[in-house]
Design a protein that fits this description.
With 382 residues, this protein is of the alpha+beta class. Helix content is 25%, strand content 37%. Strand 5 and strand 6 form a beta hairpin. Helix 3 packs across helix 4.
């Protein structure tokens, strides 16, 4: 090796050493900066909007959708016949950091046709408490203002993922269409859903429709006929879950309040079975019953608004029991859905979700073919 080569190689070794030191310094700086990140649990109270400018009409049925960067979103109820809606709805979110942007979209609810976009606003989270008055803009024109009260609270680093942590909202829909379709005379159209963010509980993994199920393939398969069937199912969903003056809205803070919202699953002094689907932000369900929804192509597809991918689907019921501590209630859920055929492997995720949401309830999950569940259903729903 020549002196020149030795000097050159020695210089390279020295350079590599400097580079390694710089890289370690950068890693340390990055780690140090990461440790400096502060996470917040934030309560957003969407109070009202004022002076909404609605194209070609003097009034509106406005609602809003608040969207966070990771897909976590909140949809409000519509307020009818006003350009100055007052929602006073609270959305609590964990895992926010300074600089997080929330997009707030304003929409005009329209049962008969597609909803109209009214504009949007952006809330930049700055860690400060107080009411934010935000302009609503559409095509660079001012279309009103929305008022959001922000109440932040610093949390530990365990909340490093943006997620909805409460409260749970229940909406009850009374649809004349349900009574017409089902011929179900006793409480025919009491359709309810609870709304919450569930993706992180299921590791962000949805399940597709069951391609081996004839009806599911008819709805979700290829070809023009499938498109027509899918639109028909979506029309059923819109009709049954429409918002109007009879729709009830309630916020629940416990499992008992959740059960109370649909009378503990009891009608005519007998327990009733319910059909459900679990979507990104919604747990939609209705009473099943012998004659309920018999004219629908697929109960689960109807509830999901013909979604090709969901988190879970099946049936559930509530049951009262006694133990040494007194009267308690259990929520029993399964995966009985031919349309989506959820694997029994996701049942632990389903149980964890409801145990987290309703710690005052005993939550049990079963595969739909489990003999224990089959026997219990035969006994309760002869």
């Amino acid at each position: 090796m020549t002196d020149h080569q030795h000097h050159k190689d020695g210089k390279d070794d020295h350079a590599r050493k400097d580079d390694d030191e710089d890289e370690n310094d950068n890693k340390n700086d990055s780690l140090h900066n990461k440790e400096k990140v502060e996470y917040y649990m934030v309560s957003f109270e969407f109070q009202k909007a004022e002076k909404l400018k609605v194209h070609n009409i003097i009034s509106s049925d406005p609602y809003f959708i608040a969207r966070l960067p990771n897909g976590c979103e909140y949809k409000s109820r519509p307020i009818f016949s006003t350009v100055n809606p007052k929602w006073n709805e609270v959305w609590c979110v964990a895992g926010l950091t300074i600089g997080t942007k929330m997009l707030i979209e304003l929409w005009q609810y329209d049962y008969a046709s597609r909803d109209d976009y009214l504009g949007s606003s952006t809330l930049l989270f700055d860690g400060q408490e107080g009411v934010k008055e935000l302009p609503i803009v559409l095509k660079n024109k001012h279309k009103g203002d929305i008022f959001v009260n922000v109440v932040p609270q610093k949390t530990t680093s365990i909340y490093q993922e943006i997620r909805w942590i409460g409260p749970i909202r229940v909406q009850t829909h009374f649809s004349a269409i349900a009574g017409t379709i089902t011929h179900h005379k006793a409480d025919p159209s009491r359709l309810s859903y609870a709304c919450f963010y569930v993706s992180f509980m299921f590791d962000h993994k949805k399940i597709p429709y069951n391609p081996h199920h004839v009806t599911a393939s008819t709805i979700f398969g290829p070809g023009p006929s499938a498109i027509a069937f899918k639109k028909a199912v979506q029309s059923q969903h819109i009709g049954l879950y429409k918002h109007d003056g009879t729709t009830l809205y309630k916020t629940v803070y416990s499992g008992m309040e959740f059960l109370e919202s649909f009378r503990f699953g009891i009608r005519s002094e007998a327990p009733r079975l319910h059909t459900y689907v679990l979507l990104e932000n919604e747990f939609l369900f209705s009473e099943t019953g012998a004659n309920f929804f018999t004219n629908f192509m697929s109960k689960h597809a109807m509830h999901s608004n013909a979604a090709s991918h969901i988190y879970c689907a099946g049936e559930f019921y509530a049951q009262k029991f006694h133990d040494i501590d007194g009267v308690k209630w259990r929520l029993v859920l399964d995966n009985n859905s031919g349309t989506y055929a959820p694997s029994k492997d996701i049942l632990p995720h389903l149980r964890k979700l409801f145990q987290t949401l309703f710690p005052d309830l005993v939550v049990e999950t079963y595969d739909h073919e489990d003999p224990v569940l089959v026997s219990a259903k035969k006994r309760l729903f002869p």
